[in-house]
Structures are given as C-alpha cells and as structure tokens.
Amino acid sequence: MTILVQKYGGSSVATVEKLGLVADKVVAAKRLGHDVVVVVSAMGKTTDGLISLAKSVADDPPRRELDMLVSTGERVSMALLSIAIQARGEDAISFTGSQSGIITSDRHFDARIIEVRPHRIEDELHRGRIVIVAGYQGMSYRREITTLGRGGSDTTAVALAAALGAERCEIYSDGDGVYSADPRVVPEARHLPEVDLASLQEMAEAGAKVLNAQAVEWARRAKIAIHARKTQDPVDAAGGVARETVAHEGATSRARAVVGQGAIVLADVAVEAAPRVIDHAARLGVPMLDVFVGRREASFAIPLLNVPDWQERRARLLEEAGGAVTLHEGRALVSVVGDGMSDALPRFYAALREAGAAPQSTSGGPLRLSAVVDAAHLDAAQRALHAAFVT
Ligand code: ASP
Ligand code: MG
C-alpha cells in the first residue's frame, strides 16, 4: 500500500458542511487503496480570532501562551474530521502535533521542525485506520507546545510525507494551484500546471501565500512532489483532478511569478554598526529578509507576519542598537521570481517607476529581484511587474 498525505486548509474546513465534503474525499482516497494521513488547519479564520482575543488581553501577549492558545484551533478540526470520518463507516483516529512525533526547536510562534518520529501514526496505519493530524504545531525538545508560523500546516504535511516515505503530498485549498501572481490583485495571472521547487521556495520566501516556505524546503530535501488542488474539484477514479499545480524537482522549466508581501518594516542601518545590529536582531528573534551590507549603506527587511510582539521587540532593538538603526514602518516587499534575474534590473526599475512605486531598497539573486516599496503602492507594483515580466 502507498501512503498518501493530504492537507486541507482553513477555508476547506470552515464550516461543518465543508468538513463533511473533506470527510467524503478522505474516505474516497482510502477506498482507492491508500493508507491515508490527513493534516488539517484550524476552521476558517479561527487562528486570527484567537490571536485577536489574546491581543485584547495584552498588546504583546507572551509567545508561549499564544502557542498554547492558537494550537487549539487545529485540535478542533482534527477531532471533528475524525468524528465525521467514523460516521461514514471508516476507522479513524486524531493526533496532536506532539502525539504525531513532531519535534521542533524551542522558539515559540515560529518554531522549526527538527525531527519527525511518526511511530504512532505508522502503528495506526497498520491497524487500517485513517490518521488525522493537527497541523501547524509540534513539541519542542523541552516538551513545550510550539507552533510553526502562519500557514504552518503545509510544513506539517510535507514533513510527515517525508518521514513516512510517502511519494506525494496533496495540498487542498480554495485555489486550484499556483499562479503567476495573486489573481485577486493581478487579474491576468496565469495558472501554472508545473513549478520547480527552487522557484517555489523563492516565491514562498518572498511572501506568496500558496505554500509555506519551510514546507517547500522539506519537499526539496526529501524529493517529494506537492500537488496543489482545489478542495471542491472532483477527483477521478484514478485519484487525479482536471487542474492542479504539481511542484517537483523534475519540472522541465522554471516558473516565473510576481509576489507581494505587506506588513514589512525596512531597517536602515549605519554601515559601521551593521554586524552588531544584525546580531542583536537575530538574538531578539526578529526575522530578517534580504540583508544587505554595502560600502555606504546597510539594510534589511522585517516581515511582521510571525512577530506577534512587535512593539516589544522594536523597543528592544532600538534600545540595543543605540541610534544605529532607523525603522520605516508601513512598507511592502514586491518581487519577481524566475530565471535570468541577474540582468533584469533596468526593466524591474522601469516597471516600478511606471507604477509610481519608488524602490526604497533593492536586492536580488539569480532567481529573484525584490524591492521594498510603500505599502500603498504594492498592488500597482505587482500589476506593472506582471505586465513587464510575465505577460
Ligand atoms: N491555522 C494556522 C494559520 O492560520 C496554520 C495554517 O493554516 O496552516 O496560520
Ligand atoms: Mg493556511
């Protein structure tokens, strides 16, 4: 029997009715002859709701307690899905991240998976059961409950697929795969039937919401193919769908896409102090993207997505950096991902200028060009870059 890992995102389990559709799909996959492991996200906007609840109690809630709180969201969906599957006549059992053997670093709210020991899952699969796993969470080596950063259920699914020796991982959501840009912002965005994992990782790191960056890292390491599909699309008798994105090592050409990420703070740093400031930021657990140290200037971008306690971290960074850092809030990061980026800077600047989005810092490598712009210009910048580089 082959092991199939499926992951269903929050919008796919937002209501009891939708959860029922997921239960039907899982039962169908089991009846096709697979050993099935299902990873679930919290229902709908549950995680956002729990974070605002904590923030209504204190501005900067302690990360450990946030993890205790937000990890409950996925436990609700895992139990309900197991109940729904059992009501359909198949045997199922749900496990939390720690019961599934997901061991993480001890950094709360954006922990990294360091090891997966899925013995209990394997035992239950041998008993013929469908195993449901709460996504987005694990247990640190100090036995603390941790979460993996927003969108972390993807990481749970791919890391489990790797540890179980599954040949593929199916990621179900309300979109039918990966596009050349966010279709809600860029109407001309194209569906990409196939994506190479290197480009997908750049896209995820630049802030694309389709797949979590840590998940893509696991897929690259373990050579797992990711199939991104829409939950509502019918699956045929062989387990296929009419339209999906397959992300794998063997993709024949590189994808090209435009990615935008809001909630960015740009840090300008005095060159002499750059090593010290970067070190402080790292020790404070401030995430840094596109660190640049030139001869006259230095900068980095701070994505706030997984920094629930920014006011506190910001105060400590400013205090420890002693005037060597200036923080510019309300920024965004816009990127083009694909081959041939090393000589595309003039075209990149021209498109940004046309969108009225002055680049406040630029960075890039062979597969990605990025600029920090005012958040107000993010959508226009994405549309202009898509027109210049994709269509
Ligand atoms: N529920 C978590 C979030 O909203 C994890 C996930 O959906 O993957 O970020
Ligand atoms: Mg998600």
Mind explaining what this structure looks like?
The structure is a single chain. The chain has 391 residues and is of the alpha/beta class. It has two domains: 3-243, 3-Layer(aba) Sandwich (Carbamate kinase), CATH 3.40.1160.10; 255-389, VC0802-like. The protein is built from eleven helices and 20 strands. The strands form four sheets. An eight-stranded mixed sheet has the order 3-6-2-1-9-13-14-12, sandwiched between helices. A six-stranded antiparallel sheet has the order 16-17-15-18-20-19. Strands 5-4-7-8 form a four-stranded mixed sheet. Helix 1 (16-31) links the parallel strand 1 and strand 2. Helix 2 (46-57) packs antiparallel against helix 3 (63-87), helix 5 runs parallel beside helix 7 (213-222) and helix 10 (345-354) crosses helix 11. The chain is globular, with a radius of gyration of 21 Å. The protein binds aspartic acid and magnesium ion. Magnesium ion binds next to loops.
Structural features:
391 residues, alpha/beta, VC0802-like, eight-stranded mixed sheet, six-stranded antiparallel sheet, binds aspartic acid, binds magnesium ion
